[in-house]
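Please annotate the following for my students:
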Amino acid sequence: MPTSRHEDFDRSLRQLQRHADGAVSPATLARLRQARQQATADAGASPWRRRGWWLATACSAVLAVTVAVQFNRTPPVLPASVAADAADELSDDALLFDESPELYLWLGSDAVAME
């Protein structure tokens, strides 16, 4: 039955793992198991872990307040003369684009896409 290189590699690693498991003494396995249990039991009581959650919560709250303040700002009130000048300039620019449909044809052409 033909096998692939991956299956041969997997089979050799499984055999190596079984050999390694058999080479470790039961006393060593017991010490490793005990050390793993102590490490996982102590990890839940870490003060740094609790501080990390509080820090993440505080940063999220500051970000939310910042975004809310940005959305609740009122736009600045411009003097009437400045507002009238801005409206005149805007209408001139808008007319420029309305008078030149070739610009839109040029923007949609393949020549621009190839540049």
